[in-house]
Amino acid sequence: MGVSIEGVGYYVPQKVLTNFDLEKMVDTSDEWITTRTGIKERRIAEGESLVDMAYKASLMALEESKTKPEEIDLIILATLTPDLSFPASACLLQARLGCNKAYAFDISAACSGFLYGLEIASSLIISNRAKKVLLVGAERLSQIVDWTDRATCVLFGDGAGAAVLSAEGEGELLASAMRSDGSYWDILYGERCGYLRMKGKELFKLAVRSMAEVCEEVIKRAGVSIADIDLVVPHQANIRIMQALAERLNIPMEKAYSNIHKYGNTSAASIPIALYEAKQEGRLKRGDLVLLTAMGGGLTWGASLLRF
Ligand code: ACO
Asked: Is 84 helix (H, G, I), strand (E, B) or coil?
């Protein structure tokens, strides 16, 4: 029995914050941000909660998969910026959507949240404990970014992505590998009721190495070759990390999807947003072999290889 992504959806706030806007806020430049990260602009939520964004992305995913809210039996929401400390944002989302037969919980795995969620959801589907799962990655990172710190504030943005998963479709999760190493917690963390803090240089090197390792592992376990892969959808943290990863895996950059120039790093939302846009642009089709990979605070990281 395979686990298939039946529908995807996304939402980003209307407000665009460009590199030129940031030039007026901190000592930075469009040139520095573009060459070091690939980011040109990001979206900022104004008057919208995390659940508002997650709700809009979820409606699209439900519609695309032709799923009624009451058919969902589990909601997993990956976020590091919930609206309340409790209850879980997944429960608030459940109420908004009317998924009254589901149970719902949040997971905290930073940028790897969507992949961790995919791993949990597919285990429950394969073991027949859930039939249809709504998996959401949503972030309002603008509320934990220190807007006076040029080393971090240029990198992040807000948004949400969602997917409906079931065993009924044509797709299949072929192999996955998830990891964490808490000894690196202080490389990227959020202060209690404070700001996101990051040691960017160290993170850069660890990100390339660790994502490459899990990607190689899932490719080997699935018994496919690099040349068989149609598309890589990496977490959108930095275009240079994606380039270094592609080089290390020996995958041409044309096979790696990136929309980082428009949204920056949206943490748990970045992979589902990218999946949605890749599909819209015709870069991701049914039957394609897709490699997803992410790395984030924890440190957490992982890779999943799917027949889409
Ligand atoms: N504008 C201008 N100059 C800047 C800026 C800025 N916005 N930010 C830093 N600088 C300066 C630094 O002060 C430094 O100056 P100095 O040489 O005089 O000391 C210089 O630019 C170089 O800084 P570095 O930190 O060495 O720059 P680097 O090339 O490493 O790029 C970056 C920094 C973009 C943060 C990179 O290290 C990176 O992308 N790291 C990974 C981030 C990441 O992957 N995050 C993912 C996880 S996020 C999550 O889980 C929520």
From this structure: coil
Which residue has its alpha carbon closest to ligand 1 atom 45? 237
Find the 140 Cα to ligand 1 centroid distance in Å.
21
Which of 166, 182, 209 terminates a domain? The answer is 166
Nearest of 22, 17, 98, 84 to residue 50 by alpha carbon: 84
> Which CATH number covers residue 271?
3.40.47.10
204 lines ligand 1 (CB under 6 A): yes
Task: Order the strands of the 172-180 sheet from edge to edge.
Answer: 172-180, 300-307, 289-296, 231-234
Q: For residue range 242-264, what is the model confidence (pLDDT) as tens digits?
A: 999 999 999 999 999 999 999 99
Quick check: CB of 267 below 6 Å from ligand 1? yes
Judge if the beta carbon of residue 205 lies within 6 A of ligand 1: no
Q: pLDDT for 261-307, tens place per residue?
A: 999 999 999 999 999 999 999 999 999 999 999 999 999 999 999 99
> Same domain, yes or no, for 184 and 49?
no
